[in-house]
């Protein structure tokens, strides 16, 4: 098998080949490290490559398999982790110059679970400063492998780029305002923001604690299902991680969606949305309808105030997360993250409480919507395939930021699981994503619907030429 045949295999397909000893973890890992050495200098997805650790873990995975000790679908699979999850003895820099010398003495819970499942850590993936909206001025951003002028998504930019470029079989990202779904959409891959509380946040640097979600980015829905099954679950180190059973997300993923009610608010989806982004949604609806889903017209609760509240809400929580270090090292922060912290510091307790109450009201209204539907479909964002030139117009076009975040902010506020899928390409070859949303804890149905879509289309099988 050539390297070109190997590096874009779906994780779940590779897992079966490793299990049956058609290929060894060591062979796969070395191939990945060689590819990273060749491509990462131009793509900048990895901030730290852990070659020695990866090779040691790959050898251990092969030895365990030879003893008959197979740990499951991540056994021997090379994975990348967003560089805000602690890794014992390995730098974890949080996209920041402030934490440049930070070396944790323990693993984040998600990293520990990956290790225990036999996964191989290729390295740590670049992100925006503090997991907010901009890379630190001193840290070059990852490059979208489809085209250099395309936005790579934030904040899990390295995770999206590495997955799309064949530099990992799966990655971990985090999502506070869209940071799994933005890079998944921008890089043409699959991303899952689980229900808040489904995955432990212990050992992951915070942006905004009640909005932060950890989840997988991979090439297929089956791949993200396999990763979620490993990282989900209760954790004594994080009391907010729900004490609920973790399903086998791969079992039943192929049962189809006949009779599943998918809601669509056509007016909301198309209001100010680029036509190609709206088309990705309408095309996806037709695919799902042909697969047996029932499409239901709905009116989504007004999300304008909720979305306006996101920055002050996140600002207060970010100010808390950075309280000690910002006071002494604020000059080292980039201007965008520093402004968010100052916004939080300036907000009164009364105004913060009003935001909390509005958030609970909005969450309740969205929950009620799912009495009548099983899933909701929306664009990834209102701007199809943003370029850096597009994003440079924020000052001239005040609505641009709102269009970018209109369909992501709401589901961080509600904490509902949301799946980002590639729904096609623009006329000039850039990926265009869309999202499916489910009620809390209904990841199994969400993944079934995404699997069905990918069985009927081939967008997820297309890759950039590198």
Automatic annotation (TrEMBL):
Query: Which Pfam families does UniProt cross-reference here?
Result: Amidase
Enzyme class name: hydrolase
Record's PROSITE patterns?
AMIDASES
Query: What are the alphabetically sorted keywords of the record?
Result: Hydrolase
Could you cite one Gene Ontology molecular function of this protein? amidase activity
Residue limits of the Amidase domain? Answer: 27-447
Transmembrane residues, as ranges?
Answer: none
Reported EC number(s) for this entry are: 3.5.1.4
Taking the record's annotation, the residue ranges forming a coiled coil are none
Protein name, per record = Amidase
Annotated organism of origin = Paraburkholderia xenovorans (strain LB400)
């Amino acid at each position: 098998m050539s390297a070109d045949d190997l590096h874009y295999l779906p994780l779940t397909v590779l897992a079966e080949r490793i299990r049956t000893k058609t290929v060894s973890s060591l062979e796969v890992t070395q191939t990945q490290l060689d590819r990273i050495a060749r491509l990462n200098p131009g793509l900048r997805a990895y901030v730290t490559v852990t070659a020695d650790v990866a090779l040691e873990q790959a050898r251990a995975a092969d030895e365990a398999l030879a003893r008959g000790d197979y740990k499951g679908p991540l056994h021997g699979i090379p994975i990348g982790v967003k560089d805000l999850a602690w890794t014992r003895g390995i730098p974890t820099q949080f996209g920041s110059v402030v934490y440049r010398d930070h070396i944790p003495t323990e693993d984040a819970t998600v990293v520990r679970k990956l290790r225990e499942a036999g996964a191989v850590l290729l390295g740590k993936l670049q992100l925006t400063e503090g997991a907010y909206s901009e890379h630190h001025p001193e840290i070059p951003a990852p490059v979208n492998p489809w085209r250099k002028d395309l936005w790579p998504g934030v904040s899990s930019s390295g995770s999206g780029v590495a997955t799309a470029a064949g530099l990992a079989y799966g990655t971990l990202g985090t999502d506070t305002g869209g940071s799994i779904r933005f890079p998944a959409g921008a890089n043409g891959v699959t991303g899952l923001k689980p229900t808040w509380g489904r995955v432990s946040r212990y050992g992951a640097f915070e942006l905004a604690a009640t909005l932060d979600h950890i989840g997988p980015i991979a090439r297929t829905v089956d791949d993200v299902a396999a990763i979620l099954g490993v990282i989900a679950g209760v954790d004594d180190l994080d009391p907010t991680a729900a004490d609920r059973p973790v399903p086998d997300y791969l079992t039943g993923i192929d049962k189809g969606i006949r009779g599943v009610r998918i809601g669509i608010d056509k007016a909301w989806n198309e209001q100010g949305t680029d036509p190609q982004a709206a088309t990705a949604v309408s095309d996806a609806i037709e695919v799902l309808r042909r697969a047996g889903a029932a499409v239901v017209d709905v009116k989504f609760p007004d999300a304008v105030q909720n979305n306006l509240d996101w920055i002050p809400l996140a600002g207060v929580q970010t100010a808390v997360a950075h309280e000690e270090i910002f006071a002494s090292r604020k000059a080292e922060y980039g201007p965008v993250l520093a402004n968010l912290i100052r916004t939080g510091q300036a907000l009164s307790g009364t105004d913060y409480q009003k935001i909390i109450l509005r958030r609970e009201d909005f969450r309740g209204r969205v929950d009620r919507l799912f009495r009548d539907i099983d899933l909701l479909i929306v664009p990834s964002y209102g701007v199809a395939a943003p370029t850096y030139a597009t994003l440079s117009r924020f000052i001239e076009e005040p609505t641009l930021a709102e269009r970018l975040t209109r369909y992501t902010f709401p589901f961080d506020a509600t904490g509902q699981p949301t799946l980002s899928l590639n729904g096609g390409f623009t006329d000039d070859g850039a990926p265009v994503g869309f999202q499916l949303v489910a009620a809390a804890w209904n990841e199994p149905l969400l993944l079934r619907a995404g699997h069905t879509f990918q069985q009927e289309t081939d967008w997820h099988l297309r890759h950039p030429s590198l």
